[in-house]
Amino acid sequence: MKAGIVGLPNVGKSTLFNCLSNAKAQSANFPFCTIEPNIGVVNVPDNRLQKLEELVNPERVLPATVEIVDIAGLVKGASKGEGLGNQFLGNIRETDAILHVLRCFDNDNIVHVDGSVDPVRDKETIDIELQLKDLETVDKKLDKVKRAAKTGNKEAQKEEAVLLKIKEGLETGTSVRALDISKDDRAEYVRPLQFITDKPVMYVCNVDEDAATTGNEYVEKVKAAVANENAEVIYLAVGTEADITELDSYEERQMFLEDLGLTEPGSAKLIRGAYRLLDLETYFTAGVKEVRAWTIPVGATAPQAAGVIHTDFEKGFIRAEVIAYEDFVNFGSEAKVKEAGKMRVEGKEYIVKDGDVMHFRFNV
Ligand SMILES: Nc1ncnc2c1ncn2[C@@H]1O[C@H](COP(=O)(O)OP(=O)(O)OP(=O)(O)O)[C@@H](O)[C@H]1O
Ligand SMILES: [Mg+2]
Description:
By secondary structure, this protein is an alpha/beta fold. The chain has three domains: 2-46 and 63-117 and 198-277, 3-Layer(aba) Sandwich (Rossmann fold); 129-197, Orthogonal Bundle (DNA polymerase, domain 1); 299-362, Beta-grasp domain (Ubiquitin-like (UB roll), Roll), CATH 3.10.20.30. It has 14 helices and twelve strands. The strands form three sheets. The protein has a six-stranded mixed beta sheet with strand order 2-4-1-5-6-7, sandwiched between helices. The longest helix has 32 residues, at 119-150. The two termini are 28 Å apart. Magnesium ion is lined by residues 13-14, 27, 33-34.
């Protein structure tokens, strides 16, 4: 699962990437600093892992991860080849969710490509470019489908109607995710085309240090502007957090965060948000060798969850032994949970719950 970072040049995309990922991207105070996309793996912070580690004392602990892609800034005309963004819109098409960074801080030393700080305007500029890119996609597809529809092919005619609706929406500034299209039609005709504006989006308001815990007027404006989008808006002092990430010791980082009024980095909140945005949840395996968080789509069955570890686990699935996270913590060990009769045995139909601690029985 991947999330892509978009936004105007010089708004703090690479700085955000650096807060999140162990990979380091070049960030500097000039537009189009980023040319080649940066790809990084981000650990999903989860306090439950520390708790399980204390109880099980394993050799190693592996958190869940998501991939983040940081691309060149987009500008007006990007979809028509302006700037550098166009060639990298393709990288964004391959992601599963969008993190849209908006500049919400004043600072005369940091150039704004459109001359002033106005996150609502900036958001529209980016939206338009993404919509134009999607328009290319739908036009290409329509070309093909139209021909088949003309021959009287009913299926093609149905598809054409959906595509025309998308085209009309995009031409009038509506993103694909906001269009009134049935779930079935979406699954059948829309999803496979990987529209950028169909992906779930989270707005990341980049604020200055003083607004780290409170947000500011710009953030309020963004919230008001996207109120009907059903999208998450978060604010983060991206520049400051990137500086904190650079500090060597945990204690130092914690001290700086406390000075800011935070108990954990805002980036932790962001990653958890992105995880939700991607409709993902976590189950655990907890053995003495390894305590590990595994990522599954919400609604996954026990065999599907087993398949994340190994396809053989899914194919040869017999049953799952399940302990709810709370039970594991309350009773303190697997043995005690068993003694108390709280370990459940579940079959192929079981829908895994977030936090389940699982063992799989299978044959190969
Ligand atoms: N909240 C902030 N306050 C002040 N300065 C910031 C903040 N966030 C980022 N910056 C600064 O803004 C400049 C641009 O940041 P960055 O390189 O991350 O932008 P970008 O969006 O990746 O740009 P590009 O599209 O050109 O790659 C950097 O000098 C960075 O330190
Ligand atoms: Mg950059």
